[in-house]
Write a structure and sequence with these properties.
Oligomer: single chain
Helix content: 25-40%
Number of helices: 6
Number of domains: 1
Order of helices and strands: HEEEEHHEHHH
Structural class: alpha+beta
Shape: globular
Strand content: 15-25%
Distance between the termini: 34 Å
Strand order of the largest sheet: 1-2-3
Amino acid sequence: MCIESRKEVQITRDDVLRRDLTELREGDRNRCVVLSGVLLDPYTGKRIPYTYRRASQIQTDHVVALGAAWRAGAYAWTPQRRLEYANDLDVLLAVDKQTNQDKGSRTADKWRPPRRAYWCEYARRCTGIKAKYALSVTGPEKRALQEMLADCPQ
C-alpha cells in the first residue's frame, strides 16, 4: 500500500486501481498515483479505460456492500473496525460504475453479476468476506451463494 499524506480512502482507491487495471501507468514523481490503465470489468466483461482527473466509468465496489455489512452485523462494530472494513483490499473491487450503482447494497440473493462467468469468484469473495468479518448470512443469501458456487470448476 502506498503511504502518502493524502486521505486514506484515496490511497485505497489507487491501490485497488493498481491491482485491478491492466496497461497501468503510474505517476513519475509519485508512484502512488495511478495515471491511466484499463479495467476488464469482472461483473460485465466490459473493457473500460481509466485516466486520472477525468470522469471515470470505474467505481470501487465493496463486494459485500457497506449497507449489507451493516445489516449483517457491522452496526455493532467500533468506528475503527468499520474503517478497516471500508478500506480492506479484500473487500474492494474496481468495477463498472453503472453496474455498481445497480447493485447498490443488495446481497447475493437480490443481485448477481450480469456476467455468469464471474459468479463463482463473486460467491467465493462474498463467503470469504462474511467469514473474515463474522457477518451473518440469511437463508436466501446462503442458497444464492451455494447456487453460484455450483458454477465453480471442480
